[in-house]
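Q: What residues go here?
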């Protein structure tokens, strides 16, 4: 059994990024895909709660913080990680460990009440939607109302006092929809999030994706529990996704999007206009230089174009994941040729041919719209 069979693609790559490449990766642990398969087949595995508890204690010792501690809370993310990449098909929960007491501890530790309550409202919103099955529009509507209260248009401009009120409104939604208050016990929160990720393996989006990509339905997903790093900490923080080469054209130029003062879901949700890596270079030149150096090391290690997620927390870069990136047919052809000439990758001609799939060729051989400028002769 390979490491990816046991830990999933994300977990295996996180292990390599940490132990082999020594990249800045937030500490954490991985729950194996075996546990997911057992959960789907016969329910919550015996002994899994105890094992998770042991790993949480180790993480608490490493970080010097307690999960949900009212004075200095450890917060974690809970992310899926199947053997084969399924981007956007399964669920993620961020800021787990916050409750009515620990949010006050986070505010005191960071001297930033707005940040603490913004993190808490995000957690309730994600947990409510993903774990408790509440329609996300209920939360989004209240968030839009909160911006109207403050007379602002950006999420990052909502005041601390308004975020406090918003948290109470979000908790009211949870109580109305579930008949229970929002869970305050971090152990209960963590089990709920892990179960939700396990269950998302058989969600409609995930099943449809596996059918299309011819991925076995029997694999299950691993779950990665990692210490939170915060891209929404302040304006010296941010989050983004980056490719070591352009996935659309194959050009040997890094490509990506990022947002200042934001968390990961903001980049892919389309609720804010993202900025490019060129913009990152202007705003965070040292971070940009460090990121490109990491891109170079990742390509050398994996010998392929890599897709990454990263967070900047108060001027420090953290790598959250990497995987071999998806690409268009045209990009696959260009990368395959270029990488046979790249001394750091040293791709053989045979390897280059294997990198180009039948789907890639199908894309290239079919007619496509030209990207060139055209003259508009009519509109309607």
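A:
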């Amino acid at each position: 059994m390979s490491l990816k069979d046991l830990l999933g693609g994300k977990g295996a790559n996180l292990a390599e990024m940490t132990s082999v490449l020594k990249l800045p990766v937030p500490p954490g642990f991985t729950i194996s895909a075996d546990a997911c398969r057992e959960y789907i087949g016969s329910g919550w595995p015996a002994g899994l709660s105890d094992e998770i508890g042991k790993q949480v204690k180790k993480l608490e010792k490493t970080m010097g913080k307690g999960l949900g501690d009212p004075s200095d809370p450890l917060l974690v993310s809970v992310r899926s990680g199947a053997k084969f990449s399924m981007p956007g098909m399964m669920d993620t929960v961020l800021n787990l460990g916050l409750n009515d007491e620990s949010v006050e501890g986070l505010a005191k530790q960071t001297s930033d009440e707005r940040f603490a309550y913004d993190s808490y409202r995000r957690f309730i919103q994600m947990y409510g939607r993903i774990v408790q099955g509440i329609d996300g529009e209920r939360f989004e509507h209240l968030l839009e109302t909160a911006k109207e209260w403050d007379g602002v248009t950006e999420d990052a401009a909502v005041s601390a006092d308004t975020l406090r009120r918003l948290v109470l409104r979000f908790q009211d939604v949870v109580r109305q929809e579930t008949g229970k208050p929002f869970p305050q016990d971090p152990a209960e929160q963590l089990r709920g999030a892990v179960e939700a990720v396990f269950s998302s393996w058989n969600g409609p989006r995930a099943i449809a994706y596996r059918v299309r990509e011819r991925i076995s339905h029997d694999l299950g997903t691993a779950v990665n529990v990692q210490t939170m790093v915060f891209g929404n900490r302040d304006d010296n923080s941010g989050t983004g996704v980056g490719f070591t080469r352009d996935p659309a054209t194959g050009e040997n130029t890094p490509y990506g999007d990022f947002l200042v003062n934001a968390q990961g879901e903001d980049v892919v949700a389309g609720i804010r206009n993202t900025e490019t890596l060129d913009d990152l270079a202007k705003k965070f030149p040292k971070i940009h230089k460090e990121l490109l150096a990491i891109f170079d090391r990742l390509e050398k290690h994996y010998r392929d174009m890599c897709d990454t997620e990263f967070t900047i927390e108060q001027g420090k870069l953290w790598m959250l994941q990497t995987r071999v990136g998806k690409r268009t047919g045209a990009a696959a052809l260009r990368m395959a040729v270029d990488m046979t000439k790249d001394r750091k990758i040293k791709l053989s001609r045979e390897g280059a041919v294997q990198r180009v799939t039948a789907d890639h060729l199908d894309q290239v051989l079919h007619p496509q719209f030209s990207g060139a400028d055209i003259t508009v002769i009519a509109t309607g």
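A: Context that may help when evaluating the design: The first helix runs from residue 3 to 19. The first strand starts at residue 28 and ends at 31.
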